[in-house]
Amino acid sequence: MSVAQNLHVDDSRHAALSIATMPPPVGGLSREDYRNAMARLGAAVNIITTDGPGGRAGFTASAVSSVTDTPPTLLVCLNRSASVYPAFRDNQALCVNTLGPGHQHLSNLFGGKTPMAQRFAACDWKTAASGAPILAQAAVSFDCRVTSRTCIGTHEVLFCQVLAVELGAGTGSLVYFDRRYHEIGVSG
Ligand SMILES: NC(=O)c1ccc[n+]([C@@H]2O[C@H](COP(=O)([O-])OP(=O)(O)OC[C@H]3O[C@@H](n4cnc5c(N)ncnc54)[C@H](O)[C@@H]3O)[C@@H](O)[C@H]2O)c1
Ligand SMILES: Cc1cc2c(cc1C)N(C[C@H](O)[C@H](O)[C@H](O)COP(=O)(O)O)c1[nH]c(=O)[nH]c(=O)c1N2
Hints:
Elements: H1 3-15, H2 31-38, E1 43-44, E2 46-50, E3 57-61, E4 64-69, E5 72-79, H3 85-90, E6 93-98, H4 104-110, H5 116-121, E7 125-127, E8 133-135, E9 140-152, E10 155-167, E11 173-177, E12 180-184
Antiparallel strand pairs: 1-11, 2-3, 2-6, 4-5, 5-10, 6-9, 7-8, 9-10, 11-12
This protein binds nicotinamide-adenine-dinucleotide (NAD) and the ligand Cc1cc2c(cc1C)N(C[C@H](O)[C@H](O)[C@H](O)COP(=O)(O)O)c1[nH]c(=O)[nH]c(=O)c1N2.
The ligand Cc1cc2c(cc1C)N(C[C@H](O)[C@H](O)[C@H](O)COP(=O)(O)O)c1[nH]c(=O)[nH]c(=O)c1N2 binds near residues 61, 78, 82 and 110.
Function: Catalyzes the reduction of FMN to FMNH2 which is used to reduce pyrimidine by RutA via the Rut pathway.
InterPro entries: Flavin_Rdtase-like_dom (IPR002563), NADH-dep_flavin_reductase (IPR050268), RutF (IPR019917), Split_barrel_FMN-bd (IPR012349)
GO biological process, one term: uracil catabolic process
């Protein structure tokens, strides 16, 4: 059987399977090998917030990237099995709040199974022009409107136009690398 025929057979099988039971692609890398490799990429840690018809919600994300400056656009990858997914699906307002040194507890709070009210009670918030919550202590906040969405495997990629930015007082950054937090750019 040709490669093309193989792909066709696999595509039709995938259509009938749920995400949870979907096998890795033919000749593909295991999820474990992929994650072990990804653990070597350091990434900023962010709390992504939203509010609107779908309700207020927030989660920790390292899968955030700049897409283009014309128009200013970033992307956020959200696992569709997360409890926050319905809120982000139903709202267009989104704020990327980038964490700084000493914010490990906030990352763990928004990255765990904690009820939403408890997550938001732990810190101070303002409301952005979009309507999304801005974390008062953030190193930088990007107030956004979601302009496009694409589902890839388990995740939804949200493309977000940046409406405004707010720079925090600190200059350091909290980075997630090798499955641990690292503080960089801390002076003194
Ligand atoms: N993109 C993501 O969805 C993502 C990223 C980082 C962490 N996490 C969550 O935090 C937990 C702990 O992460 P860890 O780094 O300590 O160990 P890990 O071994 O679970 O993950 C290692 C790296 O793989 C990537 N990764 C993990 N889960 C992923 C997923 N479902 N989809 C795409 N990429 C993924 C991330 O880059 C992560 O830093 C993960 O199990 C996951 O639930 C998710
Ligand atoms: C450092 C770090 C980084 C990430 C995460 C966690 C942590 C600790 N999580 C997981 C995400 O925060 C977590 O699934 C939800 O907050 C908890 O989901 P529930 O609301 O309990 O379903 C996560 N999830 C996601 O969909 N995209 C991402 O980029 C990341 N990145």
